Amino acid sequence: MERSEVRGLYLLAAFLACAYAMPFVVGAWTGTVRLDERWLGNLATVVIGGIMQGGVYAMFAVGLTLIFGVMRIINAAHGEMVMMGAYLTWVCFFYLGVDPLVALVLTLPVAFLFGVAVQKLLLNAVVGAPELTGLLITFGLGLTMIYAVELIFTTDFRTIPYAPGTVRLTNTIAVGQNRVISFVMAVVISTGVYLFLKLNRLGKAIRATALNAEVAMVCGIDVRRVYLVTTGLAAALAVAGGALVSIQFGFNPETGVLYTLQAFAIIILGGRGHYLGALIGGLMLAVLENLVSLMVPNGTAMVELAAYGLMIFVLLIRPGGLMGVKEG
Question: What is the pTM assigned to this prediction?
Answer without folding.
Answer: 0.90
